[in-house]
Amino acid sequence: MQGKKADRIKIKIGDIWESPTLHVLLTKEDNVIVARCLDFTVSSHGEDEKNALEALGESIREYILTAVEDDAVENILDPAHGKYWRMYNELEAKQLKRGLKKSLKKVVESGSNANRAELATEIHYA
């Protein structure tokens, strides 16, 4: 199993429900991409990331609708095993590091000579 990507997604089921942010781990296993929702321990696979995520969306949809139908919503959260969360966290940290380096490189390349002491700081919640 080779870690490919850590992602955060939301699933929308028609006009009736939109999920909170869900954690998805993409791995490559036996020449297919496996997409795992770490919040529900639901997984699926596909030939590429797009197919794997589409299949995962359908699996989560069925998982949610079955839980509602069976009046089992109280038991719906079923976090994945710790090894998957560790892999997710490591991949996410690497992705964030690459993004930070890329954005800082743009600042350096822009040659901005603004006085750092005069730059305003803003906080935005993600």
Strand content: 15-25%
SS content category: alpha+beta
Order of helices and strands: EEEEEEHH
The largest sheet has its strands arranged as 1-4-5-6
* Biggest beta-sheet profile: 4 strands, antiparallel
Q: Which term fits the overall shape?
A: elongated
> How many structural domains does the protein architecture include?
1
Portion of residues in helices? Answer: 25-40%
Could you tell me the mean pLDDT? 91
> Rounded to an integer, what's the Rg over CA atoms?
19 Å
Spatial separation of the terminal alpha carbons: 31 Å
Low-confidence stretches: none
Total strand count, please? 6
User: What is the number of helical segments per DSSP (H or I, 4+ residues)?
Assistant: 2
